[in-house]
Amino acid sequence: MAAPRLIPRSIRRSNNFYLKSRHVLSIVSQARQVTKPAYEGHIPLNWAENAFMAVGSAVMSLLDPRRGDMIAALGETTAGNSLYHLREQMLESPEGRKILRERPRVNTDTVDMEKLSALPEGTFGRAYTNWLERCGVTPDTREPVHYIDDPELAYVIQRYRECHDFYHALCNLPVNVESELALKWFEFVHFGLPMAGLGAVFGPLRLNAEKRERLFREYIPWALRCGSTAKPLITVYWEERWEQNIVDMKQELGIWDPPPAVWSKALKESQKAKEKRQARMPDSASIKS
Amino acid sequence: MYSRALRPLRAVKARSWGPQLTRSYASIPGRPVVDEETTHFGYRDVPKSEKENMVKEVFSSVASKYDVMNDAMSMGVHRLWKDEFVSLLKPGSTRVGKVTRCIDVAGGTGDIALRILDYAREKKADRDLVVDLVDINPEMLKEGQKRFRKTMYHGTPQVAFHVGNAQELGQERFPDSTYDIYTIAFGIRNCTDIPAVLREAHRVLKPGGVFACLEFSKVTQPALASMYESYSFSVIPLLGTIMAGDRASYQYLVESIRRFPSQEDFSRMISDAGFEVGEPEDGGAWRNLWGGISAIHTGVKVA
């Protein structure tokens, strides 16, 4: 990126070191004055702050993987040019263009969970709610985007984050660490996001030897093959395909099942969300059961 | 994402001051329009009555990591400043039985109180000195009590913890002319009404008592000022985001530092409150630390 001439010629030419150093230092501090926020929650960063944030969030994510906000920040600060590539993919397909136009969001307010759980078995919508219940999670725990300057690219990365659960449901993988890592490898090959790569490379360090061995032997070959041949998943308008048969969908997208996973006890997220929903609407809860 | 694979997810505070700050009394139906005076909260203007609460919220949210964050943000330098602050005061007396009464306001986690007690014990062999630690925020006081439990002063009459407002300490618990030393370190810039704090300090001090304030101040040297500015506005909010998951509180911190009066103005405010201060220069009424990044202001209450 070509920087404009920030030091006037009169100062550059002068022999006065003090004058020059003062000017340079004022530029360094002005460089911090970045543009105004482009969307709600936007925190504009200059290149130095971005680098600092990338390193800091990487360290913090490793030290405390429960810090979802740090993992999200790492993804955003290291995204680089990959988001441009994803947006191109979306612009090239009619479905992707529709997503960019309408900018759908995935959370319990926009997705009607009751309607989906009433769908027949074998549909994508039903598979999704089944998976949510089996794992005990909700789509509400995603951190909003802060560090991407272009609002459309911010939407792209938000879409990527929110659709992560759909990939889980489609591939029928639980939320334990090995499955998350398998998906990270898949995402890295498929979307090309540096963060997915970082997660894929450093994540296995947290596994014990046996799980790591299984990951490398079974899951990663699947992820590499499936990820590289699948149709661009960022262009899929999931919200319009709830009724589609899941087997047909997988065939259309070029995805096949990974090796079977170990499912553990459900987490408490979806139970808490259900209780909150029922507390809000006591009448409908009694009808539902 | 890993975050979900390892439950339970710790609630990370991502505070936004937006709704609180843009609330206007006139927009609430039925509420009379109050012509409220505003004050600054960092770079924002807020009604005076709200600032205290907002500051309290900031410190409730930073309390548990306060000491760690101080070390991270100042790279440990705040310890040097606090050591110098207390050495300057020379609290304690070599005369056995003489009770030196100190009050540390906005003392929170007890950095200064502990240093005062240690200085008196180590340098003056004084175990009669008493410190009253006052803070408006109960969470900060709890952190202070937790720290003191690790020291030898726990359970002794040498330290006492009080919840109190520096602007209005209260006649009953803090009567006139009781203290020999009044300290406030990195607290006064958070107070809404600084002259009121100074008046209270003047009230509770004995004649001959010393007022000492350690606070962030203005850096005058231009090269240092630019670097300090970049560091404050770039690094500190990011450190807050990374280490504490809370950008807004640390943004408030750096903005409130910028809003604080300069060394000359503040020393004039101290002298207006009735204290005797030195010459209006570095080394007189105040002493700059690290080029003015922080400064120690002192004053003496004359009879």
Summarize the biggest pleated sheet of chain A.
none
Task: Give the N-terminus to C-terminus distance of chain A in angstroms.
Answer: 60 Å
Instruction: Give the CA-based shape of chain B.
Output: globular
Low-pLDDT ranges of chain A = 25-31, 284-289
- The whole-angstrom Rg of chain A is 23 Å
Cα-to-Cα separation, first versus last residue of chain B: 67 Å
Count of helical stretches of chain B: 11
Question: Helical proportion of chain B?
Answer: 40-55%
Verbal overview:
Chain A has helices at 9-13, 17-31, 47-63, 68-77, 82-92, 94-102, 113-117, 124-135, 151-171, 177-191, 194-202, 209-229, 246-253, 269-280, 282-288. Chain A is an all-alpha fold and 289 residues long. Chain A is globular and about 80 Å long. The model of chain A is unreliable at 25-31 and 284-289 (pLDDT under 50). Helix content of chain B is 43%, strand content 19%. Chain B has eleven helices and ten strands. In chain B, strand 6, helix 8 and strand 7 (205-216) form a beta-alpha-beta unit.
List keywords for this structure.
heterodimer, A: 289 residues, mainly alpha, globular, disordered C terminus, B: 303 residues, alpha/beta, eight-stranded mixed sheet, two-stranded antiparallel sheet, 11 helices
Structure in a nutshell:
The complex is a heterodimer of chains A (289) and B (303). Chain A is 61% helix and 0% strand.
